[in-house]
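Structure tokens please, single chain.
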Amino acid sequence: MSEIQMPRLSDTMEEGVISTWVKNVGDKVASGDVLVEIETDKAVMEYEAYEDGYLVKQSVSEGETVPIGAVIGVIGDSPDAVPEDSGDGGSEPEAEPEPAKEEQSEKAEEIQEAAEGTEEEAEESEESAPASGDEAARPRTSPLARRLAREYGLDINRIQGSGPKGRIVRADIEAAREGGAAEQAAPAAQAKKEEAKPSAERAASAPAFDDGRASEELKVSNVRKVIARRLTESKQTVPHFYLRRTIDAEALKAFRAQINEQLSSTGVKVSFNDLIVKASATALKLHPAVNTSWVDDKLLQHHRVNVGVAVAVDAGLVVPVLHDTDKATLSEISTRTRELAGKARDGKLKPQEMSGGTFSVSNLGMFGVDSFSAVINPPEAAILAVGAMRQEPVVVDGEVVVRNRISLELSVDHRAVDGAVGAAFLKDLAEILEEPMRIIL
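Here you go.
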């Protein structure tokens, strides 16, 4: 038998959520088959088997969060090679856990709780997979929850679970115990207890003030949590500076029309963003000092130009990477970008398709945004924010005319790139876009 461990599916991933088990216990597995879909800090990704066999255990159930390296399942040589402690398809056995196993489970819980900082996340990570055959007959519970219910003399079948998919966790048992004690207490004793509370504590336990907003707490995906954490870290640890420039897009517009006319028989259509991505790669070749990263007090020079393209998905923002962008043709960039964007929206991006970026482009022009400041995606040294093309009156040869223009804003990590270096890069990038034949030469 071989254990399936939670893989590192991105360079920033620390833990993962089991989104969907594609293979069920007892299913035959061939190398290359998708075993499970895992929600990482960037997207929901497919994890494939590396050997033939049978899935004989699911150690972690759907909705659970576990750290990298944790065992999430077991592959055996035959469907009957079920581990002794796996129960029915990877579920926890009905019998009371052995004391040593309970102590180990509780110790793991304490470590996880200390690492993650919140009791709620720790309880999600301590839950075990439900029995596939008995799932409808008995509630989904964690081993610790079942033990506490026995100790407190509670009927676990009458407790409502608050964990993923209604799973009963420790907090539910504690709440049920407190609720039972409250029901048995005399009203006079309860009143006396309330009077003895400090005024601040009584105020805290009072019904919440209705602010009239009709608010509802939404479930936050793992992707959204990590986006929030990483963007906060980026703004706090990366000293940003910003450079802005507006380009004349008349020649770029005409160039795109000419390119698409030539590609009409192929079905490929080049977008303005494809042109900007290619132009960025060309400018990075001219200014390798921007194609760098500041990591652990070391300056890394990247010899490959890999441009990431920000894509909005339901869970947040992901940045698939076009490797060797400088060597790709416009039609290749167009095809590859659309392929990666589609996979991003379907949650099917592979780890290698989201790793290795050296520069990023974020375009909100399709939403009518004139300009904006993008947050750098560490460890990259810069990101280009692109606004909408708009018509503006400008002076050309002493006369006021209406021209199509696009605003660009470059966010730069000042630790890796100086202001003059960033300005020279943006100057050349603007000139390439205003003389678009330089994109393909």
